[in-house]
Write a structure and sequence with these properties.
Blueprint (H helix, E strand, L loop, with lengths): L1 E4 L5 H14 L11 H8 L6 E7 L2 E10 L8 E8 L8 H15 L4 E8 L3 H9 L3 E12 L3 E11 L1
Parallel strand pairs: 4-5
Antiparallel strand pairs: 1-2, 2-3, 3-4, 5-7, 6-7
Length: 161
């Protein structure tokens, strides 16, 4: 598996991953009716942010986007989001994307990385982020409408560099 910078040619493989995740309404706060064009505008970061894909041969297994968490006085803290194709989950793709984002953020001089909305029932992601050193610094109760579980909490997670 190789992690490389996203190109526009990758979108035809990234969009189905995005679409699958947002339509499931289990892990991402994106509108499940979002179109491919709307998703592109949100997912593909412009510099100084970065969007990458994890590929095996010519197949995109997952994608990540990263950049400053907030502008201005908050711009010293980074953030990132990760998506993995359903049939590639459990194979280390998410871990590789997370580690790539952390390396990038440290290299860019950020003071830490913050995740603003990790669905508390997304145990795979929560455990991955904890393994990489993140802590839950707060949970907003009932802030996410899970498709099958109803309202569940959203964690804010942080790792100081």
């Amino acid at each position: 598996m190789l992690i490389r910078t996203f190109t526009d040619q990758d979108w035809s493989q990234v969009w189905p991953i995005v679409e699958d995740v947002i339509r499931a309404q289990e892990t991402f706060t994106y509108d499940p009716r979002m179109t491919a064009d709307e998703a592109y505008d949100i997912w593909v970061e412009t510099p100084p942010g970065r969007t990458v894909v994890a590929v095996d041969g010519g197949r995109v297994l997952g994608s990540a986007k990263m950049g400053a968490n907030r502008p201005g006085p908050g711009a010293h803290v980074s953030t990132a989001s990760f998506l993995v194709a359903a049939d590639a989950r459990g194979q280390g793709v998410g871990t590789a994307l997370c580690r790539d984002a952390l390396t990038w953020a440290r290299d860019q001089g950020y003071a830490g990385m913050q995740f603003n909305a990790v669905v508390e029932t997304n145990r795979t992601a929560v455990e991955l982020y904890r393994r990489e050193g993140f802590d839950v610094v707060g949970t907003v109760p009932g802030a996410f409408r899970h498709r099958t579980l109803g309202r569940v909490g959203l964690h804010v997670m942080y790792l100081e560099f």
